[in-house]
Structure formats: structure tokens, C-alpha cells
Amino acid sequence: NTDSSLEKTNEEKRTIELNGHVGFDSLPDQLVSKSVAQGFSFNILCVGETGVGKSTLMNTLFNTTFENEEASHYGNKVHLHPQTYELQESNVNLKLTIVHTVGFGDQINREESFKPILEYIDTQFEKYLEEELKIKRSLFSCHDTRIHACLYFIAPSGHSLKSLDLVTMKKLDSKVNIIPVIAKADTVNRSELDKLKIKIMSELVSNGVQIYQFPTEDEAVAEINSSMNTHLPFAVVGSVENVKVGNKLVKARLYPWGSVQVENENHCDFVKLREMLVRVNMEDLREQTHARHYELYRRCKLEEMGFKDTDPDSKSFSLQETYEAKRKEFLTDLQRKEEEMRQMFVNKVKEAEAELKEKEKELHERFEQLKRMHQEEKKTLEEKRRNLEEEMNAFNRRKVAAETLMGQAVQGGSQPFKKDKDKKK
């Protein structure tokens, strides 16, 4: 009964009138002054093929010249190049980070072109989450590098989206606010451009790609945002060259047949893009990044770490118990991996021992074979030696017999010669 009465008390709202000025109506002014003193950060990811006009559009969008080297078409992989700038307009400071995808779409095999982009976005989320989980946090002073808006540049080289564009946007739509733009829109005539816009939006819807929709909840911007949602994707042209048109200088691209004025809404949608991205919905893009995309990443990471929310019917949530359970799970997994590695080592040793035994057996058989061959050769040599000795003995016997016969012959011949000599005397 006590809990229900407390809930009823909390649910009841009482309205009273003030008898004088208190001063909390200055809270909006306090928030504005505090925000201006802290400054703002805004991070834009430019995804598009090399040479589609990403750098030129950024220079035109912020009315300055950013340092950026011209990329070649021969990169063997996609890598991201972030650059941070300090901008000031009136008394508002903006820390702007522009991230270019260098080498996107230049490879023959484009199956993994989106992976470096996803890894970069997740890395920025991971940095912010690490800062949140620190004991001594400094979220207000740390540089927020999370991507707030992704300008996806579509090359007007066909009648529909490329498979690379569809796959990449499908992978990115749950991690970043995607705003598709048709780059170099002055290369397509008006009727073809309108058909291309309809075709692109149709393909995005049919493939389930969720792009950023300008919010219509706030009455102050509901009308303009709902109108601008019908112009997506924006067909833009960028230029930092000042061309004299009439009596004034305007940013335009000059051709032999005339000029394309960047800030002329009859020529392109650049003004609409700048209005929606910077002047009207920049804060909503920052809030959507934090409340939707980062929150999804944070929830998945915390669930992987073993954290969970409490339900009204469940027990209270204990960080110590969660830590101990996760630590126990980690130790169990570590012991399992150690046992697997030990068993793998034992199996490897057994395989090596079996291989060594097999080689030893082969070596022993080879040794026995050589031993038998040696014995046979030795036996053969012994027989040859005996035969040679017998031949030598027989030769010696024949030699002795021959010498004996010769001796006898010599003695027999000398005796008659002596008798003849005696007779002569």
C-alpha cells in the first residue's frame, strides 16, 4: 500500500502560480553561454570514389580551403584520412573533423571496401566508451571523434546505384547518419536528374537502407525539414572559384556555354544541403549519433561484458556479482583454451614421436640391409682370397717342381762333359 501511494503521489502534478520573479527563466541563457564557452565538435565522414569532388564540396560548404592532398586511383586498399580544424564564426568555436575515404572504389575486388570505414567508426565509439568507463572521467574536455554525419557521394555515371554503394550504405546505416548526395550534378540535365533521384530513393527503400531523415517533431523546423526530405538525395555542385555574374561575384563553375552557380537553387541543391546540414539540423545530427548509434554500440558492448538492465520483477543489479561472474567465465574459458592447447601439444608430440619411430624403423631396416650386403661382400671377398691363395700355392708348388727339374737337368748334363775330358788326358 505504501509503494502504491508513493507512485500515485509521484504521478500527480501540481501547478502553482508564482507571486514574484524567481529567476529560473534564465536557464536557457545559462545553457547557451555554457555551451558557447565549451565550444562544439562536429565530425563529417565523406564516402565516395576518388575524384568525385569530396574535398571541393567541403571547401565550398565551410567557405574556406582545407588542406588535403589529391589522391591517386592506384591505392591497393581503402584507408581513412581524418583532419581536424578549429573554426570560429562570430563568438562560436567549432572543432570540425573531416574524414576522407582515400582509395574507395579504386580496387578491382571491392567486396571488403566498406570494412575500413566500419572499423574506423567503431574505433571512435570504442574511444568514447573507454572514456565513459574510466574512474576519473573527462567527457566534457575530451575530443569527441564520433562521426555525426556521413555524406555519401553518388557518382552520376549511371541510371541507378552501384552495388558497391548499396552494400556500403546498408552496412553503415546502423552506425552513422547517412545523407546521400549526387556529386557533380552539373553533368546531368534536369529531367535525367529528377529520374535519377527517384530511382535512387526507390532502390534505397527496396533494399532496406535507412538514411537520415530530417526531424519533423519540432514545430519550428517541421515545415522546412518535411519539405527537404522530399528533395533527397541532394544534387550538389562544389566550387571555390569566384565568377563575375552580372555586377557581383558568386561561387560558380565556368563553362564555354555559361556558368553553374553553386548557391543558385535553380542550378543545384547546395544551398539546401548547407541549410539542412549546418544551419538547421547540426545539433540533431549530434544527438542522433549519441542517442541512437552510439547507444546501440554501447548496449552491445556492455551485454558482451555481462552487464544487463534490471526489470521490476527481477533482483537488484550488482556490479560486483557481474564482475565476478564475468571473471569466472573468463577463467573457465582460459582454462578450456589452455587444455585445448595442451591437448594439441600432446597430439603434436605424439605425431612427432610416431614419425620419428617410423623414420627410426626405416633407418634400422636400411642398416640391416647394408649389413647384409656388407656380409655378402665380405664372404665373396673371403672366397676370392681363398681361391687366390690356392692358386698361389699351386703356382708355388709348380715353381718348386720346375726348379727341381731344372736342377736335375743341369747336374745330369755336367757329368758326361767331365768323363770326355778325362779320356783326352
From TrEMBL:
Keywords: Coiled coil, GTP-binding, Nucleotide-binding
InterPro entries: G_SEPTIN_dom, P-loop_NTPase, Septin
Residues annotated as domain Septin-type G: 38-304
Source organism superkingdom: Eukaryota
PROSITE patterns in the record: G_SEPTIN
GO MF annotations in UniProt: GTP binding
Region of interest (Disordered), ranges: 406-425
Record protein name field: Septin
Source organism: Takifugu rubripes
